[in-house]
Write a structure and sequence with these properties.
By secondary structure, this protein is of the alpha+beta class. 24% of the residues lie in helices and 40% in strands. It has helices at 4-16, 80-99, and strands at 22-23, 42-54, 61-74, 107-117, 123-137.
Length: 138
Amino acid sequence: MTTASAIRAAIAARVALLTGWAESRFLADRLGYDPASVAHLAYSVDLPNGQAVGHRQKPTIYQQETVVIRFTHRVSPKDQVDSYDAALTAESSLITQLLANWTTTFQLVYVSSVRASLDSGEWRRHEVTFHALFYVQE
């Protein structure tokens, strides 16, 4: 049976295949808020909520988990626009990596991206949201 923790671990392992990316050891929703958690291309995988979805005409139930991947990207003081573009490229690589056909256990659907600079101005924090869909009962 597929579990939320198995999905989180599989996604984290898939992101780790991107060159230079390293999973943060901090709580997923704290990445970027604690100064010790910030590193170039550090990422976290968070599953903040999920819901079961059933069908009226079939006894099939699937679960939808919200998956939020947060990552930080260093902003070079002299080339801030280039750094911003590089962060957007890193985000695109992340989305492409996760939407590729790599698992049969669950399906990922891209939902949205939120981007912001951290207070210091030295870092960008990106939050990329997906929905993970998987069957619970047939």
